[in-house]
Amino acid sequence: MSATPRSLLLETRGLTRRFGGFTALNNLQLGVRRGTIHAVIGPNGAGKTTCFNLLNGMLRPDGGDILWKGTRITAYRPDRIARLGVARTFQNVRLFGEMTVRENVMVGRHCRSRGGLLSLAAKIPFVPLPSERAIRRRADEILDLLVLGDLRDEPASRLPYGEQRRVEIARALALEPELLLLDEPTAGMNPVETEEIRKLITELNGRGLTILLIEHKMTMVMAISHTVTVLNFGERVAEGRPEQIQRDPVVLEAYLGRDDDGPARDR
After folding, report:
1. CATH 3.40.50.300 intervals, the chain
2. Predicted confidence (pLDDT) per residue in 27-40, tens digit
3. I need a labelling partner for 211 at 20 to 30 A (CA). Which of 121, 133, 218, 241 fits?
4. Residue 211 DSSP symbol
């Protein structure tokens, strides 16, 4: 699938990462179009999370480039990439368990605040700064959007797993990202919870948010994605619309598998 450079929000060119003698990602070409849901799928160990860790600066590539709106950001630190408008969630939930739901979301908002050392030095004890009040207000708005408002004062560790996943997405949204990286957002969820996340992703995209998604549940991937990229052994083996990927013999053999009647099945 082709895209003009202007329509690409994020692009990789020849992205490569090795761990010792093992090549986790090899010469990856990836283009994420603005306003789309772009899924990255593949077997365990295919290089999907390594790709995300490169995109948000947690890892440095051994080769290739990452471009954000056409500008090279390959060597940027994670905090700088976050300020550009790239937020992510993780395969394993990483909340601050003893902090409240609201406080977890507020943490994600701080890089967008204007407070600094001088404002902290001048702060009156027990009186919130205007910037703090604004962060709290925006956190509450996001929690209401994700139907978590009634849980805002609960410690995050006390929430059921599915709701912890939603809080992690809420924290990422507090960054006000242009691109949201979701690493297996429905992992460990039951069908009802999975459907709720599917609806949430679709709603967020409908509000204009571009989403890059790693997901193993193929029914959901094929239902919501505009573009699907398939990785296997660290290399891109296919890319296209969901209906194209479902018919691709290389994909069926490498990852999706076949039932007796031929269609792709979840794994």
Report:
1. 1-85+177-267
2. 999 999 999 999 99
3. 133
4. E
